[in-house]
Specification:
The structure is a single chain. The protein folds into two domains: 91 residues, Orthogonal Bundle (uronate isomerase, domain 2, chain A), CATH 1.10.2020; 313 residues, TIM Barrel, CATH 3.20.20. The chain contains 21 helices and nine strands. The strands form three sheets. A four-stranded parallel beta sheet has the order 4-5-8-9, covered by helices on one side. Strands 1-2-3 form a three-stranded parallel beta sheet. α13 runs parallel beside α15, α14 packs across α15 and α19 packs across α20. The longest helix has 21 residues. The radius of gyration is 23 Å and the shape is globular.
């Protein structure tokens, strides 16, 4: 029986252990997609207690607490609810989560950041609470301390086109903090013409740009200007969240008419929505290509499924799920439209539906080339897929259809400053997959070659791909 979470955790053979300990373990982290707050990084936010550091904003943990029967006030907080009680609710839930990556992540977070090795359960809750809070009280575990402890070299936040990016600028001027914190251009609200708040967002964009957006040409120029501004601040990547992949051929005149009708308060059909999204998306993607940005496409979630809780709490509180909308046809249309003009950016595709892995891996292979190694990427196992099984499935799909050695590796996609341990989790799984192939005689054991390949996936490929 192997001990729980020892130094060879998830490393099931000698080759895997050598690859991890000798090559992967000490590589810096490039977290090229996350939802960390640059304001908190600049201000070097501190945490009063473990609940603030560990549970705030972490909807993975919130879902587990709800599933264990806790009332909502113990999940996301409420008037008169003590942080210790919320912490206890999670320590009660986690022992029921065996087989869930949360079980591993949570223990790794306490071990790596705070040196706490107790098994997380209700019996150990008081001592865990006291140990971690004592360390937080020293002032040595503020946000930037946690980032440095994790050996992070680059963080890419997720930012709306209307954001000022003021904190990204301020972070660059900090002394004794050499981590790059760069913006990511996330223009979802510009595309969601039928979602509540679209017109209000257009007004906000108009205020930021100092112009009236009463025509489609004006809107496109405003988006161009914001892309230019993000470029000036150091942006190297865009990101699009797509509940479904939109593709319906449209002329600029058609898109302009749809936009004008929306401004007049008219109803926009689903076909018209797709036309507007298609033309607007392609317009922005061509500008990404101009700046050599990488373009991320996050596809196939269903969001805010629980209407009552959405009205109570808003988005991003753990009520999203996996969609099963088609991806092959519409994604081919988008990629091909850009490729025909030789303006297809470097692209990373993710689907929340793991059934799409091989569909995506095969499709992007038709658009590789242009002198860019790994130009088209099958993104890391995302969200509901960043489990042990999900990571292995993504690695194997990529290896089956493309070049695993050109993969840009893991990301956190998280709002928690403790979640950098997910990179360790991924690296151990990656090394074990490769080590198992060696042990089974499916790969020659050239440690130098495989070690370099592992280091490339963990760090160097992303550094090159994104031009960090």
């Amino acid at each position: 029986m192997k001990p729980f979470l020892d130094e060879n955790f998830l490393l099931q053979n000698d080759a895997a252990q050598a690859l991890y300990h000798n090559y992967a373990k000490t590589m810096p982290i490039i977290d090229y997609h996350c939802h960390l707050d640059p304001k908190e990084i600049y201000e070097n936010a501190s945490f009063t207690n473990l609940t603030e550091a560990w549970l705030a904003g972490d909807h993975y943990k919130w879902r587990a607490i709800r599933a264990n029967g806790a009332v909502e006030e113990l999940v996301t907080g409420g008037e008169g609810v003590d942080d210790y009680d919320r912490f206890l609710a999670y320590t009660a839930a986690l022992p029921q989560a065996i087989g869930n990556p949360l079980y591993h992540w949570s223990h790794l977070e306490l071990q790596r950041f705070f040196g706490v090795n107790e098994i997380i359960n209700e019996s150990n809750a008081p001592i865990i609470w006291e140990k971690v809070n004592a360390k937080l009280a020293t002032g040595d575990y503020r946000v930037r301390d946690l980032i440095k402890m994790s050996n992070v070299s680059v963080i890419c936040t997720t930012d709306d086109p209307t954001d000022t990016l003021e904190y990204h600028k301020k972070i660059k001027e900090l002394e004794n903090f050499d981590v790059q914190v760069l913006p990511t251009f996330r223009p979802d609200k510009a595309l969601e013409i039928n979602k509540t708040g679209f017109l209000e967002w257009i007004e906000k964009l108009a205020q930021v740009c100092g112009v009236e957006l009463n025509s489609y040409d004006a809107l496109l120029k405003a988006l161009d200007d914001r892309i230019d501004y993000f470029q000036e601040v150091g942006c190297k990547v865009s990101d699009h969240g797509m509940d479904y992949v939109p593709y319906h051929e449209a002329t600029k005149e058609q898109a302009a008419d749809i936009y004008a009708r929306k401004l007049r308060g008219e109803t926009i059909s689903l076909v018209e929505e797709k036309q507007y999204k298609t033309y607007t998306f392609l317009h922005m993607a061509k500008r990404y290509a101009k700046y050599d940005w990488a373009m991320q496409l996050h596809m196939n979630p269903t969001r805010n499924n629980n209407t009552r809780m959405f009205k109570k709490l808003g988005p991003d509180h753990g009520f999203d799920a996996i969609n099963d909308a088609p991806v092959a046809g519409p994604l081919q249309g988008l990629l091909d439209a850009l490729e025909q003009e030789e303006l297809l950016p470097k692209t990373i595709v993710y689907s929340l539906n793991a059934n799409d892995n091989e569909v995506l891996a095969a499709l992007i292979g038709a658009f590789q080339g242009g002198g860019v190694a790994g130009k088209m990427q099958l993104g890391s196992a995302w969200w509901f897929n960043d489990t042990k099984k999900g990571m292995i499935a993504q690695i194997e799909s990529l290896a089956n259809f493309g070049l695993l050695g050109q993969f840009v590796g893991m990301l956190t996609d998280s709002r928690s400053f403790l979640s950098f341990t997910r990179h360790e989790y991924f690296r151990r799984i990656l090394c074990n997959v490769i080590g198992t192939w060696v042990e089974q005689g499916e790969l020659p054991y050239d440690e130098k070659h495989l070690g370099q390949l592992v280091q490339n996936i963990c760090y160097y490929n992303a550094k090159r791909y994104f031009n960090f």
